[in-house]
């Protein structure tokens, strides 16, 4: 089945052995558009490994190493797409084999302009079935003229009032963090960017301190107990701890910007 008029868009900022698998999972797209934030990927080697599947691979080198505004980065890459339909795939996500057929059916029916997709985290070699990540359903597939993102970090798609959203009948595998060291590094980066955004909204010292002491433990209780994170064993426990740490670090960085820096 043809997958013409579809571009898969990817932002990448690091070299990862998994990236070949990511690209292979999206081989059916008419175009693969990649914004490369000095990832260190060996593109010549990747093209050799993928063979004919890279005939429409287009790489756009970026001057910066780190992405400071994820929504702006996504929106910029959207403008480079020539297809009417686009699918955003993260550099640590893998599409399932059935994705090609389902995406083509959605294009043909044209019932919606935006589509959500379920995303299941794989952490410590285990697919998580509970906790915060299990509820993750970002908008990734859309008509090009209908998709724009907002938010410097943890960016989300803009949805117009009364706009209906479809749901794709498959799930992405998200190999987000190989270990706790990588997990912490990602959290640290996101918190620094997000704290700058929050700083511009001028929260009060009282508000920051209140959130600092209340939100991290509450987030752990929510994810580990109410969202049944404990059912995922040690991986679920570690994930709940790290997401709680995310809440803590964000408020610490915000406090530093206001009252220490």
TrEMBL record:
Signal sequence annotation: none
Protein name: Glycosyltransferase 2-like domain-containing protein
SUPFAM superfamilies, per database record: Nucleotide-diphospho-sugar transferases (SSF53448)
One protein family per Pfam: Glycos_transf_2
Domain (Glycosyltransferase 2-like): residue spans on this chain: 30-111
Alphabetical keyword list: Membrane, Transmembrane, Transmembrane helix
InterPro entries per the UniProt record, alphabetical: Glyco_trans_2-like, Nucleotide-diphossugar_trans
Transmembrane regions: 233-254
């Amino acid at each position: 089945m043809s997958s013409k008029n579809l571009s898969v868009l990817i932002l990448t900022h690091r070299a990862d052995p998994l990236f070949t698998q990511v690209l292979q999972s999206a081989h059916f797209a008419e175009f693969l558009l990649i914004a490369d934030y000095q990832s260190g990927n060996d593109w010549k080697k990747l093209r050799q490994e993928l063979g004919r599947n890279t005939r429409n691979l287009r790489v756009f080198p970026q001057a910066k190493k780190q992405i400071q505004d994820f929504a702006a980065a996504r929106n910029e890459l959207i403008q480079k797409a020539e297809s009417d339909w686009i699918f955003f795939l993260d550099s640590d996500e893998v599409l399932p084999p059935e994705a090609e057929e389902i995406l083509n059916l959605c294009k043909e029916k044209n019932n919606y302009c935006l589509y959500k997709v379920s995303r299941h985290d794989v952490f410590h070699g285990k697919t998580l079935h509970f906790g915060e990540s299990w509820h993750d359903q970002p908008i990734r597939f859309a008509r090009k003229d209908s998709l724009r993102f907002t938010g410097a970090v943890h960016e989300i798609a803009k949805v117009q009032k009364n706009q209906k959203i479809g749901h794709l009948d498959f799930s992405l595998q998200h190999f987000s963090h190989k270990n706790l060291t990588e997990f912490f590094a990602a959290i640290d980066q996101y918190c620094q960017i997000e704290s700058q955004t929050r700083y511009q909204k001028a929260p009060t010292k009282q508000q920051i301190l209140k959130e600092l002491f209340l939100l991290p433990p509450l987030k752990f209780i929510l994810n580990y107990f109410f969202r049944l994170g404990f059912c995922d064993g040690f991986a679920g426990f570690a994930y709940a701890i790290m997401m709680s740490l995310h809440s803590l670090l964000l408020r610490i960085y915000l406090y530093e910007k206001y009252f220490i820096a």
